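Dear colleagues,

As part of the handover before I leave the project, I'm documenting each prediction I ran so the next person doesn't have to rerun anything. This entry is a single chain, and its sequence is reproduced below.
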Amino acid sequence: MLQEFKKFISKGNVIDMAVGLIMATYFGAIIKSLVKDIIMPPIGRMMGGVDFNSLKYVLQEASPASDSSAAIAEVAITYGKFINHIITFVIVAFCVFLVIKSINNLKKKEEAAPKAPPAPSKEEVLLTEIRDLLKKD
């Protein structure tokens, strides 16, 4: 069983998948930072100084602990973070679209490239030799 696992884990496509997953994770982190730190602040400023991360609809206010009751945490719908995630998703989806489109274009170019004619079969080579010998005589 250990040998089977070793064969499985050392296959090329498993390693490629792991590398792709690692790259996607860090690409996602870069895009999140792009949205949160670069794109959203100017948009928030144009909208009157709004910080999208702090946009929320409070369902229940937080209350501190007192002698007779325990502390109650705030219950809120944080729609500003949701907006950030939507923008992040759109950017990532667009980047994936561009990558896939580039790969498809490369495949089309490879398919369109003229291929060398196939080598003649053994019979054709033999017949050509016979023809050439008969021409000499």
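The domain at 2-115 is CATH 1.10.1200.120 (Non-ribosomal Peptide Synthetase Peptidyl Carrier Protein; Chain A). The chain has a mean pLDDT of 83.

All the best with the project,
I.
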